[in-house]
Amino acid sequence: MRRLLSLVLFMAAHPALAQSLEAPLPPLAPWKGASEKLIVGANDPWITPAERVNFVDTPDYAATRAWLERLVASAPQLLSIESFGKTAQGRDLYFVRASKGGGGKPVLLVQAGIHSGEIDGKDAGMMLLRDIAHRGKHGLLDKVDLVFVPIFNADGHERASPWNRPNQRGPRSMGWRTTAQNLNLNRDYLKADAPEMQAMIALINRLDPTLYLDLHVTDGIDHQYDVAYAFSGWRGYYAKSPAIGRWLDTRLRPAMDAALKRAGHTPGYYVSAVDNRNPDKGISHDPDTPRYSTGYGDYRHVPTILIETLSLRPYRQRVLGTYVFVEEALRLAGNEGARLRAAIDADRAERPADLVVKWKPLKDPIYTVDFLGIAHDRYRSAASGREEIRWLGRPITQKIPVFGEEPDQSVRLPKAWWVPATAPEVIERLKLHGIRFETIDAPRTIELDMVRIAEPKLGAPIEGRVPLMAGGFTHGRRSETFPAGSVRVPSDQPLGLLAAALLEPESADGVLAWNFFPGMLQRTEYIEAYAIAPLAERMLTQNAALRQEFETKLAADPAFAADGNARLAWFYERTPYFDDRYLLYPIGRE
What we know:
Keywords: Carboxypeptidase, Hydrolase, Protease, Signal. Helix content is 32%, strand content 24%. By secondary structure, the protein is of the alpha+beta class. Helix 5 (120-134) crosses helix 10, helix 8 (242-262) packs across helix 10 and helix 14 (529-542) packs across helix 17 (564-572). The longest helix is centred in the middle third of the chain and has 21 residues, at 242-262.
C-alpha cells in the first residue's frame, strides 16, 4: 500500500512521466448517434455527475448514493431506495426501485459494477432513473418494476485509480475488478463465498425477477460492436432453460438489436476470440457454467443477459449504449411479461435426467458470421521479441468461424442427494440458493451410491479457495448412517439441476471441485512396517488372486517395485485396518 501511495504521489508530481506511461490504445474513429439526445443540458437540475463532466469521470460511492437519495426524495411516488446487504468492508449494498405500485408485475433486475471498473451501467442507470422520474419516461413502469443495483462490488469501486484498467477508455478513475477479499463476484454465483454474492442471491430469491441484466465492459480485441451481449440459448445453443432461451433469442434479440441500431449503436454477440493475438482464427461460443451470472440464471431458470460494452470505445458512447439496452429491456419485460413468465414456468416444470459435467471443443465451426472487425497487421516487437498485433482503426467485414463445444461426459441424476450434518457450509449454500431439502431429526442408515476419488491434486489458489482435481471417481454401494440434522435433497424440484451442479462429485463447479471437504484428503491412522510386512506376507500366501495382482503391479511399475513403503501401503489399503473414509466424498446419491 505504501509503495502504491508513493507511486501515485510521484506521478502527480511528474505529469509528463505519467503521460508517457499511459498505455497507447488503438486509433479511435469518431462516433455520433441518436442516443446522444439522452444527455441533458448543463443547466438541467437533474444532470448526473457523469454528464456534468462530459463523461470524463464517474462519481464515487458516496457521491452516487447522495445523488440517488436526492432523486428518490424528489419522486417518492415512483422511486424508493433500500439496502439489501453489506460488503466485506461494511459498505451498504443497495438498490433503487422504480415502480408505480400494484402487485404481480414483472421485475427487471439490473446490476452494475459486479466488476467495478466496468461501471458504465451505474451512470446509465442514474440517467434512466432521472428520465423516469422527471423527463416523461414513467410510462415504462406501467407494466413492470425496475430494481437497479448501481454498485454491486462496492469495496472494489472505492479502490479506484487511473491505473486500474489499461485497456479501457475512461472513466478517468476506475474501480478494481475484485472485492476487498480479492474475490471475483462473477465467478462466485454457485459457490457463493462472498458476502456480496450471498446478498445478491437472497435478493434474486426475494424478487424472482422476470429478467436479469448483468452490466459489464469487455476488452480482448478491437471490433465494431460497441454493445455486445450474450445469454444461454443464443442461436439455440446450450440452454439448460430452453423455453427461456427461445424467448431471449427470438423475441428479445431482434427487438434489442433494432433498438440499439436506431440509437446509433452496433450490437452483436459477446466477442471472445479464440486467440486475442490472431483474431482471424475465429471466436468462441461456449456453454455457460453456473459460476457466471448467465450460467447461474440458466441453471435456476431466471432469464439472464450479460451485456459487454467495448472498453476501446469512449465512456460516453458506452454509457449511452447501456442506457438504450436497459430501457429496451424494461419495455420488453413489460410488454412480453406474460409470454416470458410462461417460458419460465415451462422450464421450472421440466425435470432433466442428466447433467453434462465435462465439455470438449469441436474441431469444426458451429457457424460462421459476417464479423464487423477492425483492420490489423503485425509487427516485430523489440520488447516481446515476437510478432504482435497492431490495430489500424479501419472497419472491415470478414467471414469468421465460430467454434463451440460438445458434451464429453454426463452423469445421470439420482433420486436425491444426502448431505451430512457435518457439512454445514454446504447446507447453508442449499438454503441460500433456495434449493428444497428435508432435514432428518434422528439418525438414519441408508444404502447409497457413494464416490471415492483417486489421485487427488490441489490446483493453484483461485477465488479464495484451493480447488481439488481428482484423477478418477469410483462409484460404489455403501451403507451410510447420517446423523440428525442431515438433509435429503430431492432432484425432483425446479432447482434440481442447480442442486446437481452443486452436489454431483464430477461437477466442475460443485462443492467437491471447490474443495469444500479438505478433511477427506487427510489420513489419520497408520500401521507400522513391523506389523504390516508379516501380515502382507500372510495375505500373499493365502490369496492367489491378490498375489497375481501384486506381481502384475510390480512388473508394470518399476518405481513402485523399488519403493518398500509404497509396496507395504498397497497391502495396507487392502486390509480392514485401512481408513475406509479416506478420499470418500461424504455426499451420497440415492
